[in-house]
Amino acid sequence: MPTVIVNDKPVEIGASERLNCIQVAERAGVEIPHYCYHHDLSVVASCRMCLVEMGDKKPDGTVAMQPKLFPGCQTPVKDGTVIISNSEKVKAAQKATLEYLLLNHPLDCPVCDQAGECGLQDYSYEYGRGYSRLQEPKNLKPDKDYIGDQVTLFTDRCIMCTRCVRFTREISGTAELQVISRGTHEEIDIFPGDPCNNKLAGNVVDLCPVGALCSKDFLYEQRVWWLNSKNSVCPGCSTGCSIRVDQNKDVLYRLKPRENPQAQGSFMCDEGRFGWKYIHSDARLTLPEQRSGGKLVSKDWDTVLPAVRSALKDAALRSPGKFTVVISPWATVEEAYLLAKLAKKLAPNAKLAMGPVRTIGEDDLYPKDVHGKPATPTRFTIRAEKCPNRLGVEAVLKQIQGEVIEFTNVLDQVSRGEIETLFVLGGDPEGWISDADVAKLDKLKLLVVQDLLASAASAKAQFVLAGAAWAEKDGTFVNHKGLAQAIHRGLRGPGEARPDARILLELSERTAMFNAPALRKEIASEIPGLAALGVGDLGEFGVLLGTADAKAAELQPA
Fold this sequence. Notes:
By secondary structure, the chain is of the alpha+beta class. It has helices spanning 21-27, 88-102, 119-127, 163-170, 203-207, 270-274, 301-318, 333-346, 390-400, 407-415, 456-460, 500-507, 516-526, 550-555; strands spanning 3-6, 9-12, 51-57, 63-71, 81-84, 151-153, 177-180, 187-190, 213-215, 228-233, 242-248, 251-257, 289-292, 295-298, 323-327, 351-354, 364-366, 380-382, 421-425, 446-451, 463-466, 475-478, 483-487, 543-544. The chain is elongated, with a radius of gyration of 28 Å. Helix content is 23%, strand content 20%. The strands form 7 sheets. A 7-stranded mixed beta sheet has the order 14-13-21-20-19-15-16. Strands 2-1-5-3-4 form a 5-stranded mixed beta sheet, sandwiched between helices. The chain has a 3-stranded antiparallel beta sheet with strand order 10-11-12. The two termini are 25 Å apart. The protein is built from 14 helices and 24 strands.
């Protein structure tokens, strides 16, 4: 195997691999600091932070070092390459580079959103001088708050790494951002009248290694060291972007993409990034409700849950063939399994239906060309299917029932009086029934709605169960290509709203507390199509259905 020497440590690489110094050093556990380099963008080698000493190991064992330093991001390695990143020569170059970058950088750390996760702060502490020799006034440039609807630019903080410019050219393809002027006058700016409002624009904030590009949605909201983070999956479409949920005191403040080569890569769209506000909506269901004759009877879980259980049992005995359960594609695999098993336990011939699969337009592919049409190769896709777990729910329904009944068929049967009892597990923030169809529910003898937001349908229900949003529960989502990823509870729901799986466990009279990894193993043993969930812990990247374990999923092509 080809071998590269990094700070006297040998690192083997694949014969066909094409790696640069930064990548191979990472395998050796060595950090080569860098700003402009990003593995998903083209290499420009402009920041000079990654300068290293380079050489070659000769067949006789001697090493011939080059006299000058090389940018690690732009320099490929081969068998026998020698890299030194910790010599005095390299350290002096790092100090000089940081001193240059800090010459005109303002001391905004006390008010800067990036403080606490800033590459300039970290590298200054780790590799910098710790003091400034500048005696002249700093060259401060005016801020630009018109860069885009969601993005603002603090020009004087910018270190001209050009990551944002390359992103809009290479990933979104919209090319709104550019470098204007030259020398000490150069700045990031937009073409006049063409702000950075593409559907991936928020990613430039994540790419910025300093506090130059900031999200207007998060600006001055929280200090990052106060935030508690949990890994999750964006529910906005079937792409299933891996994300991080950041909250403080059960208030969600932001979502950030979490790199996953099996899902979306390194980025996420703005629809998912900013589309979570319904989690804190005033329309959230916060208490369970039991009604009789249109009058409210109880709002206490200890009263409502036994009443629901009793009402479902009576309905199943009275008309077992007219008992139907609707499971939303926003439900997790675990919730779909628990509810489907409960329904079949109450009434073996109960019907299991898929909730509405919301689809808007066509898949939106990036990058775009100059005419706004998709260019090849595709780097990111916003899918038309606006639900996170259709495949997961389908797998459960096909195994337990043998088919998937469409929601439109359920409404037709309700209209004809063929369904008397309907249990709906919702979760879609846009709702599961149109205003025009709500009147059809009047023909039902029993309607149980377990949902996230109050609606015209929940107002008609005899029982309303206050469920949780995706960020408030544990479970599994399966994306468009069969990648099963774990979502983790990042915050508590409002009031007395409960995670949906907990509600369904209690209705099923299962005494164990909900444990997602344990339930996945049970599901895997009963549903062959979900056998890959048998690993329990799905890991950081998830498991591709049909593979034996999470490691196999990591090795699959994206």
